[in-house]
Amino acid sequence: MVEEVETIRSGYITFEEVVKSLRRWPGWTTPFCNVLLEKKVVRNFQEAFERFSQEGAPAYVDKFRFTSKKLCIYIREAEGVGVLAHPNTSDEWISRN
Question: pLDDT by residue (tens digit) across 5-16?
Answer without folding.
Answer: 555 655 677 778
